[in-house]
Amino acid sequence: MLKIGVPSKGRLMEKTFDWFGARGVTMRQSGAEREYAGIVEGVDDVELVMLSAGEIPRELSAGRIHLGVTGSDLVREKLADWNRQVTEAALLGFGHADLIIAVPTAWVDVDTLDDLDAVAAQFRRHHGHRLRIATKYHRLVREFLTDRGVADYSLVDSQGATEGTVKNLTAEAVADITSSGETLRANHLKILSDALIHSSQAVLFLSHQADWGPSARRGLAGLAATLGLPLQLVPTDGPHQV
Amino acid sequence: MTPKTAIRAEAEALYAAIAATGAVPVEADLLLPAETLLDLYGEDIRARAYVTHDPVRGEMMLRPDFTVPVVQAHMAHGAEPARYCYMGEVFRQQYHLGPRQSEYVQVGYEVFDGTDPLAADAEVFALFADLLAPLGLRAATGDIGILRAMVQGLTTTERRKAALLRHLWRPKRFRALLDRFGGRAPLPESRVTLLAALGRGDDLAACITHTGLRSEGEIAERLLTLREDAAAAPIPAAEVVQLEQVLGLSDKCPAALARLSAIAADVPALGPAVQRLERRLAALAAKGVDVAGLDFEASYGRTTMEYYDGFVFGFYAAQQPDLPPIASGGRYDALTAVLGQGRSIPAVGGVIRPGMVARLKGVL
Questions:
Q1: Is residue B175, in this structure, part of any structural domain at all?
Q2: How many domains does chain B have?
Q3: What is the pTM of this model?
Q4: How far is residue B217 from each of residues A69, B175, B194, B220, B310, measured CA to CA in Å?
Q5: For A41, which DSSP code?
Q6: pLDDT per residue over A116-150, tens digit each?
Q7: How far apart (Å, rounded) are the C-alpha atoms in residues B92 and B90?
Q8: Least CA distance to A152: which residue of chain B?
Q9: A164: distance to nearest CA of chain B, Å?
């Protein structure tokens, strides 16, 4: 049986169901609306697993699901060397959002990473601690800033309402996902012009680690044929080489 | 023997050999107060430290490195000159899949002795070279002091020099700054617009709600800085070329010294640093190091060794370039100044990774 994990609620779930539906694979929640069990029709040897989008990267990495739909940002953030653990089987074209760095609009002297870096040095001199950037995307933000050679900052964890951290004086800048930028503007923040860390969208991922036995392969072949996608296993250094 | 037992045995042998030179054994806690340390370390170690919470002592971290706790212990209880040896685990999170360990043993030696810092540099290197001699490693050396002197010698503002010195350890940004200050890269469009607005005397803060800890005064201060910087003359092209020549210098020590001496004839600020290099090479030779065969790379240590500010060195397995250094170290006077809040002590030291030694010896 091939297990496919999809988001268990919200717009991401609806859009995922729409995407598969448009291609001949019907997905729906079974029973009550709040029950996290799903039914898939139109293809054999495939089982639907409803999961929180945030858990799907981990489930793919552990090989407990063969395929999974989640944001490309979450996979890059949560999995070490993500492209050695999963393959992007299809970009689904929805759930677009950008991971960016934003600073107070009042910082009229700041527009680029170069400015942010210089301000970080100035800030540390004045305040005796590093300039704090609130985010839940620690890996992506750190890799990005390290690569660009920004210094004298520190990341502080913020799992929600990140835009409010600047006003609350728990951070000086934020690195967060935005689609329209409205929440940022409402909180008197502006986006740096050269700090687009990642353009995220919903992606169908394929796990390298899952047990790709005969029935899972049949499920994959069936899905590939119905969806009209070239879904196939790629050679990996995992235990189930193909 | 299990791998850990083999590594422990290797560590104890190295530790005993260092202690036999008269170094005083020193212990450091495994759990260290996080706050002061987090602020001191460069991004690399900082991001990779395991931080945990203690209900009474607050944020604590698993020891990511010995140097800082050893310096702290020395400043609290010791007196110069002092020589210490230590052995134990350090912990670093790994962000990539692969064989790199997140927990490994280090054996180290630190010298706090200002009588003859160059002799102390040579002493640490020569001791490590002796201990590691059976492995046939390649040694790399460098001198952050040479790079600092080159930057200090540039014909430009103190502020630009400070910005370059701050980024000695981040080559990409250093390069971007040098291109900007040398007039080779244009200002970003937004900066041009900003400077034009400042030139017209526009009120930039009008109708903008101030938010956050960074004050309006700080913003005004930086705007002034930007205007001053825009008026500064570019660093002369010939000086940029010279700096690049030094950054790219990689040769055996005698040839590197000759090259640097020639450059110092043009750049007086480089003179004292070159004399120190020359005297250090003499000190190394006096300790029996084959200086003629020793590699010198001016940019060595620039990407990974942020708290070192003088002599730097590392030992590598020539046949396995993907392995981390078997041993590394250097001089870190500036770090002691930060730790001592003004009180600085001349400090040089290094660590050996017994796990790597055991692996190269084939006992793992």
A1: no
A2: 3
A3: 0.90
A4: 48, 30, 17, 5, 36
A5: E
A6: 999 999 999 999 889 999 999 999 999 999 999 99
A7: 7
A8: B43
A9: 10
